[in-house]
Design a protein that fits this description.
The protein has about 425 residues and is an alpha/beta fold. The chain has helices spanning about 5-10, 20-25, 50-60, 90-105, 125, 130-140, 145-150, 150-160, 170, 175-190, 200-215, 250-260, 265-275, 280-290, 295-310, 315-325, 330-335, 340-345, 355-360, 365-375, 380-390; strands at about 15, 30-35, 65-70, 120, 190-195, 220-225, 350-355, 365, 390-395, 395-400, 405, 415-420, 425-430.
């Protein structure tokens, strides 16, 4: 079995590493941590790489520590940011922390019977009782201003690149994160901190603080920030929205589609990063994909693997079925068996009209459904023309002018999908 560092290297997940880190990991089971700032009550796909680092870390026999930033979240990390974040109130912060905790528990093994079971910590627990004077005396004096000013996260905000500059609050962030590392090293024996490449300055501040305060060696490694081949930021949908891990924010279908729509170049890179497939499996997939790119083998496997990891097999199967329905590769039975959430995700934004469920069950003519009942088409004459042109479908099946909608056409007992042509949809929703 390859080592943790070897695993990350072939997957393209190593950017910077403090010398001696690999030797430490090969020597003994090591505790390593990553921090997650609670800026929302859910993590998004941009958080998947840090989560994956901890999962790989645990799979290689080491002990992961997931830190939720209850105290640092009150300030906000300036790394990679051009403006200062809004400060969160305690109630909102607590809601965010609970949401993130519940998500992390889905990915890491917190079974306390295992020696390398994961640990979840909140830095507010040790920061809440530290006074400003204590912090300035015990921590601040060990790190010079020159050292802090040399960090990229600080330089970019102070050299005129950004007009707003940096507040003292954000300037102290690297000290607070450094204090976290020091505290975890001293209290739990955590010897490694990991994060994105924009975190390197904060990570090395922590290892420097440990060296100066207790004369011990601590380690750090960072992974590259994930970008698309065209240089744009990874993690947002085509509409510019975050793709969240919470199904209430991003449906499983939309999550699956996000990965399915990735370019060939990015798919070849991301399948190494975001799946647990072996090197041999991935190389075989890449060869098969390159032989016939139109089949989108890489995208389909990537979407399936990541969605199953995040949302489970059952929900992934639903998303795959919904995707085949969307592109007309399914049976009538498949369409009628769609669950309500998947159906509404599939046709998100399609106009709806509520209709008495009894009327739908008892049967209505397609002419009435298209015009008077729904208003989808402006008149019966327009409906007749469309039907004559054979451009009308009910639940994606072509119909003629004597078609009757009844109970057998209801999706989940209450929905009917009307369609004109390829892209014009309307939903009838039956209500009691």
């Amino acid at each position: 079995m390859n080592s943790f560092i070897e695993e990350l290297t072939w997957r393209g997940l190593i950017h910077n590493i403090i010398p001696g880190t690999e030797e430490q990991l090969n020597k003994e089971m090591t505790l390593g941590y990553i921090g997650f700032d609670p800026t929302a009550d859910s993590l998004h796909v941009g958080s998947l790489v840090p989560i994956l680092l901890l999962v790989h870390f645990q799979r290689h026999g080491h002990k992961p520590v997931a830190l939720v930033g209850g105290s640092t979240g009150m300030i906000g990390d300036p790394s990679g940011k051009s403006t200062e974040r809004n400060l969160l109130d305690s109630e909102t912060l607590q809601k965010h922390i609970l949401g993130i905790k519940s998500q992390l528990e889905r990915f890491l093994d917190f079974d306390s019977n295992k020696s390398n079971s994961a640990i979840l910590v909140n830095n507010y627990d040790w920061m809440k009782d530290v006074t400003f004077l204590e912090f300035a005396r015990d921590i601040g004096k060990h790190i010079t201003v020159n050292y802090m000013m040399a960090k990229d996260s600080v330089k970019k905000r102070l050299n005129g690149e950004y007009q707003e500059g940096m507040s003292f609050t954000e300037f102290t962030y690297q000290l607070l994160q450094g204090f976290d590392f020091y505290h975890l090293y001293k209290e739990k024996g955590v010897k490694l901190q990991m994060g994105g490449s924009d975190q390197w300055g904060n990570l090395t501040t922590g290892s420097e603080l440990i060296r100066k305060k207790i004369g011990e060696e601590a380690f750090a490694l960072t992974c590259p920030l994930t970008t698309k081949a065209n240089g744009t930021k990874f993690g947002k949908s085509e509409g510019g929205e975050n793709v969240w891990l919470d199904v209430n924010r991003t449906s499983v279908f939309k999550f699956y589609q996000f990965w399915l729509n990735i370019t060939d170049i990015d798919a070849e890179k991301y399948i190494k990063i975001y799946t647990f497939l072996s090197k041999d499996e991935i190389e075989s997939l890449i060869r098969n994909h390159n032989e016939n790119p139109s089949l989108r083998i890489l995208q389909k496997k990537l979407a399936e693997e990541v969605t199953r990891w995040v949302h489970g097999k059952e929900e992934t199967d639903k998303a795959i079925k919904a995707s085949s329905i969307l592109f007309g590769k399914s049976t009538k039975e498949d369409f009628l068996s769609l669950d309500e959430t998947t159906f509404l995700s599939l046709f998100e934004g399609v106009p709806q009209k509520e209709v008495s469920l009894n009327i739908l069950k008892n049967g209505i003519s397609i002419l009435d459904a298209l015009s008077e009942i729904s208003g989808f088409l402006s008149s019966k004459n327009e409906a007749k023309r469309a039907l004559k042109e054979k451009s009308i479908s009910v639940n994606q099946e072509k119909v003629n002018d004597d078609f009757i909608i009844n109970e057998s056409n209801l999706i989940q007992g209450k929905y009917v999908l009307l369609q004109r042509g390829k892209k014009s949809y309307f939903i009838l929703k039956g209500i009691e």
